[in-house]
Amino acid sequence: MAGEEFAILVEAPLSAAAAIAESIQQRIAALDVPFAHPGVRTHGRVTVSIGVALVRELSTLPRTLENAVDDAKRKGRNRITVCA
Asked: Disulfide: which of 11, 21, 55, 62 matches 50 by Cβ 3.0-4.6 Å?
């Protein structure tokens, strides 16, 4: 189950963007929203996996962001990965 995907663009150092991602992750966890889906055996609480990436050229933005979030999802639920 892929869930929803969205992007937050921040003009900041990679470390600051990672801190923002961590804050988002903590705030979503604090909401304590139950999750159950009849099509899968996954039950629990809503979580978020976040990929943080440095984009040097606008033309690479979509692919870079997709790679970052895919990396976070591959590593498991409720993750933040930072791709330099």
From this structure: 21
- How many structural domains are present in the chain? 1
| C-beta of residue 5 within 8 angstroms of C-beta of residue 69 | yes
Cβ–Cβ < 8 Å for 81, 69 = no
The predicted pLDDT at position 1 comes to: 47
Q: Is 4 part of any domain?
A: no
Is 73 a domain residue? Answer: yes
Condensed to tens digits (0 to 9), the pLDDT of residues 40-64 reads: 666 788 888 888 988 888 898 888 8
Domain around 47: 14-83
pLDDT higher than 90, residue 66 = no
